[in-house]
Automatic annotation (TrEMBL):
Protein name: tRNA pseudouridine synthase B
Protein family per UniProt: Belongs to the pseudouridine synthase TruB family. Type 1 subfamily.
Matches recorded under InterPro entries: PsdUridine_synth_cat_dom_sf, PsdUridine_synth_N, tRNA_psdUridine_synth_TruB, TruB_C
Gene this protein is translated from: truB
EC class of the enzyme, as a word: isomerase
Catalytic activity of the protein: uridine(55) in tRNA = pseudouridine(55) in tRNA
Chain ranges of the Pseudouridine synthase II N-terminal domain: 26-179
Annotated EC: 5.4.99.25
NCBIfam families named among the record's database cross-references: TruB (TIGR00431)
Annotated segments matching region Disordered: 261-295
Amino acid composition bias (Low complexity), ranges on this chain: 263-288
Length: 326
């Protein structure tokens, strides 16, 4: 059986770590080469993108994609982890009198380009050690604010329960954003504290949770179909494409540069046989600005390339061996 290569879209179940899912997929697919494009907290559910085989090398082009979440925020209590798994910080505060107009006013400064202080129990390294490890060891962890972009932060429903105000929200944000920290900061702005009680990742760039599959935990059975998205299909969703013929695909696979040809003018002479035909996607913008997926005649990924400005050469920055093309 040949080693699998591609991208797997997983709908992570609650109370499982992302690393548990990676380990399980390694077992089910019989390969050690499995990586992820960004973890989810154990309490969170939703879209987890895994790279399989040569797909692990494509992950660098997926990790920075914007993400969309649905979340539930509880106003009236803060916790040590900014979510329901932490210990309460001080007594609960009555949030029953907070109006939705007040909530909306507090949301406004949390939209757009902002500086966000990550949650203390994040995986960010402080002097070589994870922040959560330092926090759990009793250290006073102070994390620097980081720039993030919140393109959408909207309340979709609300419920009052005792002295709490629960808000269902949708958040679209840049990579590196902590939705837990948004819940914390909203509660702080309203003077009652806040934390996250539910989180689901719905989208990562063009990938949707509706396309994903459930990975059974150990003991739930091993007979499961894990359909992989081909490298060509995955790459073409996140970057412009350029078609190449088989000879050019082979050269790219050996790390060679190939020439990108522009579409011929009417009645023009045919291109030389040793040149790779290419029609650069208009979405790529000026030459050299963004990586492109070089696809062979079957639509399989031969390489990720950049076009050298001025000379029309495609320079491979990631090559895929012929046996791994999908």
């Amino acid at each position: 059986m040949s080693a699998p290569h591609g991208v797997l879209l997983v709908d992570k179940a609650p109370d499982r770590t992302s690393h548990d899912v990676v380990a399980r997929v390694r077992w089910l697919l019989g390969t050690k080469k499995v990586g992820h494009a960004g973890t989810l907290d154990p309490m969170a559910t939703g879209l987890l993108i895994l790279g399989i085989g040569q797909g692990t090398r494509l992950l660098t082009h997926l990790v920075g994609l914007p993400k969309t979440y649905t979340a539930t925020i509880r106003l009236g209590a803060a916790t040590t982890t900014d979510d329901r798994e932490g210990e309460p910080i001080g007594p609960a505060r009555d949030a029953s009198g907070i109006s939705l107009a007040q909530v909306e006013a507090a949301l406004a400064p949390l939209r757009g380009d902002i500086l966000q202080v990550p949650s203390t129990v994040s995986a960010i390294k402080v002097d070589g050690k994870r922040a959560y490890a330092r926090a759990r060891a009793g250290e006073d962890v102070q994390l620097a604010a980081r720039p993030v972009t919140i393109s959408r932060f909207a309340v979709t429903a609300s419920r009052r329960e005792g002295g709490f105000l629960d808000l269902d929200a949708v958040v679209t944000c840049s990579s590196g954003t902590y939705v837990r920290a948004l819940a914390r900061d909203l509660g702080t702005a309203l003077g009652v504290g806040g934390h996250l009680t539910a989180l689901r990742r719905e989208e990562v760039g063009p990938f949707r949770v509706g396309e994903s599959v459930h990975v059974p935990a150990r003991g739930e059975g091993d007979d499961v179909d894990l359909p992989l998205l081909g490298l060509g299909a995955a790459a073409s969703r996140v970057m412009p494409t350029v078609p190449v013929d088989e000879a050019a695909a082979r050269d790219l696979g050996h790390g060679k540069q190939v020439r990108a040809l522009r579409p011929a003018a009417p009645d023009a002479a045919p291109a030389a046989a040793d040149a790779a035909p290419a029609a650069a996607d208009a979405a790529a913008g000026p030459a050299g600005e963004s990586p492109r997926a070089a696809l062979d005649p079957a639509g399989h990924l031969a390489a990720v390339v950049r076009e050298e400005p001025g000379d029309g050469l495609l320079r491979p920055v990631l090559v895929v061996p012929p046996e791994a093309r999908t």
